[in-house]
């Protein structure tokens, strides 16, 4: 994996965020995290990640609101975004269908290794 790849993890659950941070760093990614959508948008603008893992349900600014704002920005309209959530994909898909989501991951259904494989697949294709 290219060590130049950068991933932003926008997730309010610190334990989950750190678990993914450690897994992606062990795979050679540069990782930065944010605990809500408002901080996440600033992080994405400054860090310019190759891909974003975005939780839906967060305080301050939820994932749907953050993604809507991200897609309005010239610097954010083309960044691949994976929704990382415990909200069912059908429910999340209706809310986000017009915002160019690359993949949905239900946290309880995939291991961190499976999530990193999905991210790598998306990066290779983009």
What key attributes describe this structure?
alpha/beta, 126 residues, 5 helices, single chain, Rossmann fold, globular, 5 strands
Characterize the biggest β-sheet: 5 strands, parallel
Helical content stands at 40-55%
Total strands: the figure is 5
Kindly report the name of the CATH homologous superfamily.
Response regulator
- Indicate the CATH class: Alpha Beta
Write the element-wise H/E pattern from the N-terminal end onward: EHEHEHEHEH
Please, what is the average pLDDT?
A: 87
Relative strand content: 15-25%
Number of domains: 1
CATH topology call: Rossmann fold
- Helix/strand-derived category reads alpha/beta
In terms of per-residue confidence, which ranges show pLDDT below 50 for 5 or more consecutive residues?
A: none
- Using only CA atoms, what is the Rg? 13 Å
State the end-to-end distance.
Answer: 14 Å
Note the total helix count.
5
Numbering strands along the chain, what is their spatial order in the largest sheet? 2-1-3-4-5
CATH-derived architecture: 3-Layer(aba) Sandwich
Shape summary: globular
Give a short summary of the structure.
The protein has 126 residues and is of the alpha/beta class. It has helices at 14-26, 37-47, 63-72, 89-96, 112-125, and strands at residues 6-10, 30-34, 51-54, 81-85, 103-106.
